[in-house]
Amino acid sequence: MAAAGYGKTTALRETLPGAVWCADPDPGRLAAGTLAALAAERPQWIVVDDLPPLPAAAGRALLAAAFALPEHTRVVLSTRRPFDAGAGLWRGRGALHEVRPAELALDVDAIADVLAAYGLVGQESDALPARLRDATDGWPALVHLAAETMRASGVPSELRDLAEPGTPLASYVDEEILGPLPARTLRLLRDVAAFAPVAPGLCAALGHPKAHAALAALARTGLLTDPTAPPPRTDRHPPAYPGPHAAPPMTAPCPRPHADPGPTGGWGDRRAVRAGPRVVPLVAAVAARPDRRRAGTAAAWYERHGPPLSAARAHHDAGDPARTAAVLDAHGAAILGAGGARDIVELTGDLPLSPRLTLLRGDALRTAGDIGRARRAYACAADALGPDDPGVAWRTGLVHYLRHETHEALAAFGKARVDPPDVSTVDGALVLAWTAVARLPHGDTATALDEAFRAVAAAEATGDDRTQATAHTALALCLALTGDPAGADRHHAQALHIAERAGDRLLVARIQVNRTFRLLRDARYPEALGTARLAVAAAASAGHANLHAIARCNEASALSRLGRHDEATRRFDGVMRAFHRLGSRRVAFPLVHIADLHARRGFPQQARTAYQEAVRVARDSGDDQALALALAGLARTLAVEEPEAAAVHAEEAMRRAGRDARVPALLGRGWVAAHAGDRRAATADADLAAALARELRERAGLAEALELRAAVTPDPASARAALAEALAIWRDGGAPVDADRVLVALGGLPGAGTDERLDALLAARRLAAAHPPAAAPRAGDDAAAPPAGPDGATAHPARVATGRAAPPRTPLHAIAPFHVHRRPLSIRTLGQFEVLLDGRPVPASAWQSRKARDLLRILVARRGRPIPRPELAELLWPDDDPARTGHRLSVLLSIVRTVLDPQKRCDQYVVADAAGVALDVGRLHVDVEDFLADVRHAARLRERGADADARALLTAALRGYADDPFADEPYADWTRPLREEGRAAYLRALRTLADLGRAAGDVEDALHHLGRILERDPYDEPAHRATVATLTAGGRHGEARRAFARWAAAMREIGVRPPPEDVLVRSRPRTR
C-alpha cells in the first residue's frame, strides 16, 4: 500500500518473479471466481495490481475469496488507497501483512546508484545522495524525476527548487499524487504542508478538528513520513515466511500522527528540532500555500507545544522577526545540538542580531562547515564583547582547532578570562575543555589532563548537560593518551549518557567519533565500523561537516582493516574532498590512513607519495602526532630501498611521537633496524612497542609488535608463539587480511606442519586474489624468480626463502610486513643441491672443501636419523685408514657448522656426539621434507573428502619440484633411497591431480598431469589408459586414437602385449 510512484509493481516483479498477475482488478469479478480460476493453475503467488478504492462490503468479499483459496496459493493486493474493510480480523490472526511505503523507499546507497546512472556522480557534493534522500524520503519516482532534472539543469543549492511550478517533478506531484486525493484530505495537506511535525492538535488549530483519520491515511500511503523513525525490516523472502496466505513479509512502522505533547517544557532539548511526521519535503514544496496568518497560528501552537525550531520557523514565515529571535535566543543551543545548524543559518540571515545571536549564528555556520563565515561572525561578536570574553575565545579557538591550526587555537584559548568566578560558567568550562584537547597533538599531556579535570569540575558546577558532556569527552581523550584506557571508557560512557539525555546529536557524534578511535586501536573492527556509522549518522543529523568527515575517515579505516578495500578507498576519497572543501589541515590523518591502505594493497609508490604529503601537511600545521605517524609509515616504506633515509625518518618519528603515536613510531624504527640486519635493536623496539601497547590497551599495535618480534627472533618456537598470539588478535578483531598475512608467516617457519603450510598456501591465494601484483622484479634480484618446477611454474610462495635485505617483489610481500629472518636457513635438494642463508645461496668458497658439502648432503639424505661416525667416514673416504678419517670428519663438521651458522650461536643444526652425527631437520627448512609431507597430507585430505584442499596443496607442492632429490649427484648410493622416495611421491602427486581434475570435469588439467607422468615414464600403462579414457569421455576421439597408438607402441617396445582396440570404446575415466 503506497501512493503513486513508490515502485509497488517493480518491487513485486523483482520479489515474486514466478507470480501469476491478474489482468482484471475488478473486485467483484475477483471475488466471484477470477481468483479461484487463477488458483486452479496451482501458482504460489497471485498478484492483483492497482486495486481501486473498495466499499467495505466489496473489500470483505475480496478478502474472504482470497483466504478461501487452497493453501498452496498466496495473494498480494497492491493499491494506492488504505484498505481496511474486513482486514482487522485476518490481521489479528497473523494471516494478513501490510507492506508500507517505508519498505519501498530507496535508501541513501540506492539513491547514489540512481544518481550515478544519471551521470551525477561527484557533482556538487558527496552529500547529494543524503540530501536527496531527505528531500524525497526515498520516494522512487521523485528520486528519478529529481535526478533527471539535475542532469538537465544542474544541482540547485536548495533541492526544493526542483519542485518549482512548471518542472516535471511539480507536474507529477500535482497530477499523480495530489490530484487523486479526496478534497478534504487535500485541503488538510495544503494547510499543514509548510509545518513539521504534523500533529492532530496543530491541524485543529489550523481549522481541521477531526484530522486523525486523514493523517493516518496520508501516513499509510507515504505522503506523511517520519525521518526519525527506525529503518524498516527488509526481509524480502516470501517462501520462508510462515502462513499459507501470507503476503511478502515486508513490514514497516507507519508514522503515527504526532501526539500533542503538552506545554513547551514537556518537549525539552530532545525535541528541539522538527522530530515527528512531516509531509515529504518535495511534495510539501508543491502542495504548500504560503499564508502569514496560518503561519502565525502554527507558531503560537508550536510555542505552547514545541518543538522550538518549528516555532522559530513559523514565526519567520509569519513575518515576526522579534519572536523568531526570542525563540532562537532561548533555545538556540538545543536547536543547534539537535541538528538545526542550517535552519539557524537561514533564520538568522535577515534578523537584527544581538552579540548572543551573532555567536549562535557563528556556531551554526561552523557546524555546517562554513568556517570562513563563522570566523567573521565571531569577529563581529568580539567587537562587541571583546576577544577575552570566554564565549568568544573558545569559539575562535575552536575554529582554528577544527582547521588543525593547534598553535593558533591555543593562542585564542589563552586570551579568555577564565579566572574564578568566570571558570565556573558554561563558557569558562568550555575554554578549559577545549584547551585540554588542543594541547594533546603537542604531547603536553600532563597539562592537558590537569585542565580536563578542572573543566569537568567547572562543568558540573554549571549544571549544564552539554558543557558536562563536552568536559567528560575532553577528559576521556586525555586519559586515553596518558595510559588510563579504562578511565577513558568510563568518561566516554558518562559523556554519551549526558549527551543522549540532552538530545544533542552534535555531542553524540563527537563522542562516537572518539569511541570509534579507541575501538580501532583495540582491534575491534566490526564494532568500530558500527560505531563509526553511528557517528556518521549523528554528525549528518547534526549537520556538522567537520565531524562528519572525521567519522567517515574512521569508517574507512575500519573497512580497510576488515578487508573491504574498495569501499575504504571510496570513503577516503570522499573524506579528502570534504576536508579540502572545509580548508582543514586535518587532512594529514586521512593521508596517513590512505598511505597505510596503499601499503597493504601492494602499491609502495602510492604509499610513499601519500606519506610524504602527510609529512608536509603535518609539518605546516604543527601537528606532531600526525607527523610522527606519517614519518613512521614513510620509514617502513623506504626501509628496503633507502635504508639511510628510512633511519632518519624513523628517528624523527620517535622524537615527535607523543604517547599516543609512540607504538607506531617504535614499530617503524624496529622494522628499519630489522631490514638493516640489527636484530638486537629491532627486538628491543618490538618489546617496547608490545609493552606500551598492552599498557594502552591497543591490541592492533600489540599484534604488529608481535609480528616484528617474530620476524627477528632466530628461534622458530618463539616466532611461532608470537605469531600465534598475533593471529588470535587479528582473527578476534575481524581483520582477515592481517590474519592471512600471519598465516603465511607461520607456514614459512622452520618445522611448520602440513596443516600450517596448507593454511599458508590458502592464505597466500586469498591475499593474491585480493591484491593486484606489485612492481615487476628487478634484474639482478636473486630472489625475484623462485626456483621453477618441471612445468616452469614457480615455487610455492610460502616456501620461498625471504629474510634478507631485499625481499622478493611479489604481491604477498608488497602487502605483508617483511619477515627478515623468517627462514634463516634453507636447504634445497630438489634438483641442484643448494644452501641458502637469509635467502642468499652460500658461495662455493665458504665450503673450503667439496667433502664438507658431501657431508651435509649425506646428513640430509638420512633425514634427521643419526649416522655412526665410522659409517660416515666410510662414505666420505672409502677404503681410507679410519685412524686418519676421524680427525678429518671433525674438521668437516666444524666447516659445516660454520657455514650453517656463521654467528656460531650454538650447535643448533648439527647434532654430534661420540656415537654418531645427525641433522636437526626440525630447526631448518629442507624442501624435500616439505614435499613428502605435503603429498602425504594431501592423501589424508582426500580420505576426508577435502578434494579442493588436496588439489591446492599438491599443485603448490609440485611447483617446487624442480627435479628429483640430489639430481646433481646421480651415482652416489647414499642418495638412492631419498631420490626414489621423492620420485615416487612426485608421480603419486601427479596421478592424484589427474584423478582430481577428471572428477572436477577439468579435462585439460587431468591431461596435463598425465602427460607429465608419461614424460617421466613413457611405459606407465595406467597413465596411458587414463589418458585414452579421459580423451574418450571428453568426446575427443581423434586425440584418443593417437594416444592409444602411443600406448600400444610403448608396450611393444618393452615386450608387453598391446591393449586391444576395443579399449577405445570401453574406456571410461577412472575416478576414485
Please tag this protein with its features.
1072 residues, mainly alpha, Serine Threonine Protein Phosphatase 5, Tetratricopeptide repeat, four-stranded mixed beta sheet, three-stranded parallel beta sheet, 12 strands, flat, disordered C terminus
Brief write-up:
One of its GO terms (biological process) is regulation of DNA-templated transcription. By secondary structure, the chain is mainly alpha-helical. It contains 50 helices and twelve strands.
Your description of this structure?
InterPro entries: AfsR-DnrI-RedD_regulator, Apc5_dom, BTAD, Sig_transdc_resp-reg_C-effctor, TPR-like_helical_dom_sf, TPR_rpt, WH-like_DNA-bd_sf. This is Bacterial transcriptional activator domain-containing protein. It comes from Virgisporangium aliadipatigenens. Residues 224-268, 772-805 are annotated as: Disordered. GO terms for molecular function: DNA binding. The protein is mainly alpha-helical and 1072 residues long. Among the domains are: 8-96, no CATH class; 122-208 and 262-371, no CATH class; 386-501, Alpha Horseshoe (Serine Threonine Protein Phosphatase 5, Tetratricopeptide repeat); 504-577, Serine Threonine Protein Phosphatase 5, Tetratricopeptide repeat (Alpha Horseshoe); 709-813, no CATH class; 840-923, Arc Repressor Mutant, subunit A, CATH 1.10.10. 61% of the residues lie in helices and 4% in strands. The protein has 50 helices and twelve strands. Strands 8-7-6-12 form a four-stranded mixed β-sheet. A three-stranded parallel β-sheet has the order 1-2-3, sandwiched between helices. Helix 24 packs antiparallel against helix 25, helix 33 (643-656) packs antiparallel against helix 34 and helix 48 (1021-1033) packs antiparallel against helix 49 (1037-1053). The longest helix has 24 residues, at 976-999. It is flat, with a radius of gyration of 38 Å. It starts with 7 loop residues before the first helix and ends in a 6-residue tail after the last helix. Mean pLDDT is 83; it is low at 233-254, 261-270, 773-823 and 1068-1072.
